[in-house]
Design brief:
4 strands, about 50% helix, globular, about 5% strand
């Protein structure tokens, strides 16, 4: 059985949804950020990065969302969450997930964890002030360049969809109006209507 370490309202939601949609045999372990459990010796032994998600497998621990999503898709190929038989489509999928990880998520983090990048309080505040623009720019790129519709990669649902959905749920908190991005907003509504997503949201509530 797989074990997913998660915290609500984090990027671990993407892995949780993927596990549910893949029909995986898994259990959940909630990491309490309010008590800084992610910095506890016990958790740091599991994940030295002190972050979520962390997926415990019989082979070891995976800690990065794109890697976890791909692992789930490969472990449960019958769920058809990745186009393994199409090298170009697979490369495009990886490019999208990389963009979410390296650009959109980082822009979001500047608003809450600026101390990762700067010690100067003024610099940290400047990063926070920039978040609506940088996150908005990221979703503008998704809206105009990446998104094919009705799912991220087109007609086929993939691991990119729970990943985009997860980051899209943060827009309001980043002072970004979802109405600026009708494709992304409609995708968020579509995802929220899926039974697996509703089950996951209820479990994390």
């Amino acid at each position: 059985m797989l074990t997913l370490y998660y915290a609500p309202a984090t990027c671990a939601l993407a892995a949780h949804i993927a596990l549910e949609q893949a029909g995986a045999d898994y259990r959940l372990e909630r990491v309490d950020f309010k008590s800084s459990q992610q910095r506890s010796p016990e958790y740091l032994k599991l994940n030295p990065r002190g972050r979520v998600p962390a997926l415990v497998t019989e082979h070891g621990v995976l800690t990065e969302t794109p890697a976890i999503l791909l692992y789930i898709a490969q472990r449960y190929p019958e769920a058809k969450l990745v186009p393994f038989n199409d090298p170009w489509a697979l490369a495009q999928l990886n490019a999208f997930c990389s963009y979410l990880c390296s650009t959109v998520h980082v822009a979001h983090a500047h608003g809450r964890r600026g101390a990762r990048w700067a010690d100067d309080p003024a610099a940290i505040e400047a990063m926070k002030a920039k978040v609506p623009q940088t996150v908005g720019d990221g979703f503008a790129m998704i809206e105009t360049e990446f998104f094919k519709g009705p799912w991220v990669m087109g007609e086929r649902y993939t691991i990119a969809d729970p990943y985009l959905y997860t980051l899209a749920t943060w827009m309001e908190g980043d002072s970004v109006d979802p109405a600026r991005f009708p494709k992304v907003a409609e995708h968020r509504r579509r995802m929220a209507s899926l039974p697996a997503v509703q089950k996951v949201l209820a479990a994390e509530a």
